[in-house]
Specification:
Radius of gyration: 25 Å
Family: Belongs to the LysR transcriptional regulatory family.
GO biological process, one term: DNA-templated transcription
Order of helices and strands: HHHEEHEHEEEEHEEEEHEHEEH
Pfam families: HTH_1 (PF00126), LysR_substrate (PF03466)
Number of helices: 9
Keywords: DNA-binding, Transcription, Transcription regulation
Shape: elongated
CATH class of the largest domain: Alpha Beta
Helix content: 25-40%
GO molecular function: DNA-binding transcription factor activity; sequence-specific DNA binding
CATH topology of the largest domain: D-Maltodextrin-Binding Protein, domain 2
Length: 296
């Protein structure tokens, strides 16, 4: 294969990713006419139309989509090899993209992001907040962070934090008028502060004790999608909250919240960074994994 063919294939992949010749030109740092010429030359050489053009957008034809699907792993390996060669000159560098749920960002990453940035100033860390489980390869990410129970078997997973534990809490003002539950089923009739995932699903409160597992669809006056807001509402006496211990540790110590059902909230696996198995691992990703796994 001639080197010009490789560059044309790279241009084709960029056009498909950007959805336009102008966007691809900006991404590649070349003129739009050069992008158009590269794609047209490739189509002429193969004798097949690879991109369907309209006045508003550009999209792969069926033949183009099949070609890109076969090309994607090879182009990824080339990018990885080039990035590794650049990084090997001195120290880990480049953009590192992660998909991370908001809770993991708050509890596992945020406390050490400043130290990581200082240790690796040539790495640009991009964190995309997503509560749903994301296919890191399909999403164009280097890695992701999720709870251990959510990981796929075909991923390499490295623990980056300690075990976690939930806590059911309420304010003294709340318990001044409501009884303290001693069993999960006692939550019926209590005002519970509920959490909605970005997928639209409401979290069902999960409990376990002596091998017995209970999952409840609680009821209450507030539905929020941010743990800090739920914690604040609980302190204000709006109802009972079910949160990770770390979100309410200070409020418990200060007497602003009271914990109940503690014996029904055992610890469980914390957060892991996960990434696909590759023959080569980018130095930037290796640096991130090594830096954060020491917290566990």
């Amino acid at each position: 294969m001639k080197r010009t063919h490789l560059s044309q294939l790279a241009v084709l992949a960029t056009v498909a990713q950007c959805g336009s010749f102008r966007g691809a030109a900006k991404e590649l740092g070349i003129a739009p006419s050069a992008v158009s010429h590269a794609v047209s030359s490739l189509e002429a050489r193969l004798g097949v139309r690879l991109l369907a053009r309209s006045t508003r957008s550009v999209a792969p034809t069926e033949a183009g989509a099949q070609l890109l699907e076969r090309l994607r792993p090879a182009l990824s390996e080339i990018d990885l090899a080039l990035e590794s060669a650049v990084e090997a000159r001195d120290r880990p560098a480049g953009i590192l993209r992660l998909t991370v749920p908001r809770t993991a960002a708050h509890l596992a990453l945020t406390p050490r992001l400043g130290a990581f940035a200082s240790a690796y100033p040539d790495i640009v860390l991009e964190i995309v907040i997503e509560d749903r489980f994301t296919d890191v390869v399909e999403g164009g990410f280097d890695a992701g962070v999720r709870l251990g129970e959510s990981l796929q078997r075909d991923m390499i997973a490295v623990r980056i934090g300690p075990n976690l534990r939930g806590a059911v809490v309420g304010a003294p003002s709340y318990f001044a008028t409501m009884p303290r539950p001693s069993h999960p089923h006692d939550l019926v009739g209590h005002r519970c502060l509920r959490f909605r995932f970005s997928s639209g699903i409401l979290y069902r409160w999960e409990f376990e004790k002596d091998g017995e597992e209970i999952e409840l669809a609680v009821q209450g006056p507030l539905i929020l999608d941010e743990d800090h807001l739920i914690a604040n509402a609980a302190v204000d006496g709006a109802g009972l909250a079910f949160l990770f211990e770390d979100y309410v540790r200070e409020a418990l110590a200060a007497g602003k919240l009271i914990r109940v059902l503690e014996d029904w909230c055992p610890p469980f696996d914390g957060f892991f960074i996960y990434y696909p198995s590759r023959r080569q691992m980018r130095p930037a990703l290796r640096a991130f994994v090594d830096f954060f796994k020491t917290t566990g």
